[in-house]
Amino acid sequence: MKKILITLLIGILIIIAGAGLMVYGYTRDDFSLDQYEMENFEKEEFTYLKEDFSTINFDSEIENFKIIVTEEDIFKIEGKKSENIYYEYKLENNTLTIKQHWKDKIRLLFSFDETNITSPYIVYVPKDSLKELNVNIKVGNIDINDIILDKLSVNVKTGDVKIKNVFSKNLDVVCNTGNVDVNANDCININININVGDLELITNQAFDVNLSLNTGKISFEGKINNSGYFKCNVGDVNLILFGNDYNINNTGNGKTKITTDVDLGNLHYQYK
């Protein structure tokens, strides 16, 4: 009983502290929500040579992020800045690191609104130039298309992830709340973990596939050459497997082992 009371007291204190910060933010003379509308952001553009780096690390609190592959010989960054937000760019060890900074942390509390990120941060990538891409965003959507990589790693707390026509030896996606839609070709390892949302993965072939979802729906279509693991606590798992050389939950004589773990939901699978 004592532990429960202590837990409740801590929760109440956190709520009071959060409310205090909100009141403080709104009553500040220099605070204006209008400042964070995209119309008040300035675009900033940078270019880099194709040979300047082969890895990009992108880290942001609130942002929509997009990759566009081009036939040009340069990287082009179409970023943004405002009175309170700026990006730091660091180029070293064949890696470009892009990090978002907020000058006023209090204002960050009032900016989790989609209207603030209607215009995406865009990186134009020369074809066949990038080997590794790591994207870490707390709030925002991620859109990556038509790129060949050795490694693609995406981590988003709240937002949707769309990855289309991507070749990547290693593909890792972590999403706390949001939908993940992936169309990947010829991957070796695919790992996707979602807390709440729907997961759709299409791949012509992959060596190992590991999909884990707490609440939502898993839809998979493709060929798995070695092993597949599909876990869903609450929701259905639908599998369309290319070929028929599978062993599903210790049933069948195929060489590819498929394991499913569905708590509250249904498992459906078919061969194509």
Instruction: Indicate the structural class.
Output: mainly beta
Helix content: 10-25%
Overall pLDDT score: 85
What's the Cα radius of gyration?
Answer: 22 Å
Secondary structure tally, helices: 2
Counted beta strands:
19
For the terminal residues, how far apart are their CA atoms?
A: 57 Å
Report the β-strand fraction as a percent range. Answer: over 45%
Along the chain, the helix and strand elements come as HEEEEEEHEEEEEEEEEEEEE
Largest sheet properties: 19 strands, mixed
Concise overview:
With 272 residues, the protein is mostly beta strands. It contains 2 helices and 19 strands.
List the helices and strands and how they pair.
Blueprint: H1 2-27, E1 42-49, E2 55-62, E3 65-70, E4 74-81, E5 85-92, E6 95-102, H2 105-108, E7 121-126, E8 132-139, E9 142-145, E10 148-158, E11 161-177, E12 180-185, E13 187-196, E14 199-215, E15 218-234, E16 237-241, E17 246-248, E18 256-264, E19 267-271
Parallel strand pairs: 2-6, 2-8, 3-7, 3-9, 8-10, 9-11, 10-11, 11-12, 11-13, 12-14, 13-14, 14-15, 15-16, 15-18, 16-19, 17-18
Antiparallel strand pairs: 1-4, 4-7, 5-6
Describe this structure in words.
The protein starts with a helix and ends with a strand. It contains 2 helices and 19 strands. By secondary structure, it is mainly β. The longest helix is centred in the first third of the chain and has 26 residues. A hairpin with a 2-residue loop joins strand 5 and strand 6.
Using brief descriptors, characterize the structure shown.
19-stranded mixed sheet; 19 strands; disordered N terminus; 272 residues
